[in-house]
Design brief:
Among the domains are: 30 residues; 38 residues. The protein has 6 helices and no strands. Keywords: Cell inner membrane, Cell membrane, Membrane, Protein transport, Translocation, Transmembrane, Transmembrane helix, Transport.
Length: 166
């Protein structure tokens, strides 16, 4: 870039003082400073825009790479699943003709080899708290069910006997 030393800056200052004059020199210096600031901001904005464009291109390339990898994984999984289904149908083809009594013995066989045997599903019992919340609020009020707890001080203040007026 331009090599400006102290001696060159002093020479430019002396020439500007002679040409412009001492009255107008401060105003011209402010104007030149403002223009230089605007130019620096413009250059910084252009650099930021170029950087954003470069990052956007990198992100697009990364997106394409991830999509390609996802497609490859999807095709691999679908082919593996199809192969598994084919092998499973071959293995289970002979088991479809067996009776239900032999099916119960197969569970015993599974338990004997250490395979997990899951218990039969049982419907859960009703939850008392949920059942209690299902009672309507008007019924609780009529039956005298307490819905809010009072602190000791609040209870004393509420149930304190009223003093007669004099």
């Amino acid at each position: 870039m331009i090599d400006l030393g102290i001696s060159k800056l002093a020479l430019i200052g002396v020439v500007a003082l002679v040409v412009i004059g001492p009255e107008k020199l401060p105003r011209v210096a402010r104007t030149v400073g403002a223009l230089l600031g605007k130019a620096q901001r413009y250059v910084a904005e252009v650099k930021a825009e170029v950087n954003r464009t470069i990052e956007l291109e990198e992100l697009k390339r990364m997106k394409e790479a991830v999509e390609k990898t996802a497609r490859d994984v999807e095709t691999q999984v679908s082919s593996t699943a199809a192969e598994f289904e084919r092998e499973w149908s071959e293995v289970t083809a002979g088991l479809e003709g067996q009776s239900s009594s032999s099916a119960s013995t197969s569970y015993d066989d599974l338990a004997s080899i250490g395979a997990p045997v899951y218990p039969e599903y049982r419907r859960p019992k009703k939850n008392f708290r949920l059942k209690r919340q299902a009672v309507p609020q008007w019924y609780k009020a009529r039956a005298g069910v307490r819905t809010r707890a009072l602190s000791g001080a609040a209870r004393v203040a509420r149930y304190r006997p009223k003093t007669p007026l004099r």
